[in-house]
Write a structure and sequence with these properties.
Distance between the termini: 35 Å
CATH architecture of the largest domain: 3-Layer(aba) Sandwich
Keywords: Isomerase
Protein name: Ribose-5-phosphate isomerase
Strand content: 15-25%
Largest sheet: 7 strands, mixed
Low-confidence stretches: none
Number of strands: 14
Helix content: 25-40%
Catalytic activity: aldehydo-D-ribose 5-phosphate = D-ribulose 5-phosphate
CATH class of the largest domain: Alpha Beta
EC number: 5.3.1.6
Radius of gyration: 18 Å
InterPro entries: NagB/RpiA_transferase-like, Ribose5P_isomerase_type_A
Order of helices and strands: HEHHEHEEEEHEEHEEHEEEE
Shape: globular
Number of domains: 2
Length: 255
């Protein structure tokens, strides 16, 4: 099998999926050093599905298979662990591979400085651990995720914040004192009675602060609260963002 070019691929029935695929495939094509990279971060979300798929295609190509077979892929949660295994890639752990060459992950929203809101999928701590352990952090997303300027312009669900369960009342009150308009403990929905529990056995709070003109300052204030494990604000972390469009084109933003 030869890795198909993006241009040769038939369009998907859903234009949104075509946008995601185009962004993820191009990001993999342009940011993997097949000769020198060995440890690859694989994040979470619907666009990252296509990043793992693209790596799996390279694994089946005789020109690249030997190199890709040596890649150790580090997941950010249960979904990405399955993506790695389902595409025939080698699964590793960050405990044994603390230095990562390149990480590919999605975003809930991206501002013009490539700051991100992440955590809609409840994996924000592992996602931040992997991305900040990487030499390069590359974001893949569709056109809906790009803010015209400030974070929380399009994303209206608030900033995801991972917290110690016993601190949820204290942290909720402290977030309101910081200026949050609305604070909720994320619930598990109809399939689960009670709050969402992360892979680290913590709760998630979603806090709405409106549009974020200074996300770095807000991140620091939230992170300083007793009971907060991590915030879904990824500040000055990503080096590139690949944004797929409905027509299959991709916009690339760099820092």
């Amino acid at each position: 099998m030869t890795v198909p070019t993006i241009e040769s691929l038939p369009p998907l029935a859903d234009k949104l999926e075509s946008a995601k695929r185009a962004a993820a495939y191009r990001a993999i094509d342009e940011n993997i050093d097949f000769q020198n990279d060995r440890v690859i971060g694989i994040g979470s979300g619907s666009t990252v599905v296509y990043a793992a798929e693209r790596l799996g295609q390279y694994l089946k190509d005789s020109e690249y298979s030997a190199q890709v077979a040596q890649f150790i892929c580090i997941p950010t949660g249960f979904q990405s662990r399955r993506l790695i295994l389902d595409n025939g890639l080698k699964l590793g752990s960050i405990e044994e591979n603390a230095a990562i060459d390149v990480d590919f992950d999605g975003a809930d929203e991206i501002d013009t400085d490539l700051n991100l809101i992440k955590g809609g999928g409840a994996c924000l701590f592992q996602e931040k651990l992997v991305s900040t352990s990487s030499k390069k952090f590359v974001v893949v997303a569709d056109y809906r995720k790009k803010a015209p300027k400030y974070l929380s312009t399009n994303w209206k669900s608030g900033i995801p914040i991972e917290i110690v369960p016993s601190a949820y009342v204290r942290v909720s009150d402290d977030l309101k004192k910081l200026g949050a308009n609305h604070v909720i403990v994320r619930q598990g929905g109809s399939a689960k009675a009670g709050p969402v529990v992360t892979d680290n056995n913590n709760f998630l709070i979603d806090a709405d602060f409106g549009m974020l003109e200074n996300p770095a300052q807000l991140h620091d204030k939230i992170k300083a609260l007793v009971g907060v494990v991590e915030t879904g604000l990824f500040i000055d972390n990503a080096c590139k963002a690949y944004i797929g469009n409905a027509d299959g084109s991709v916009n690339v933003f760099t820092k």
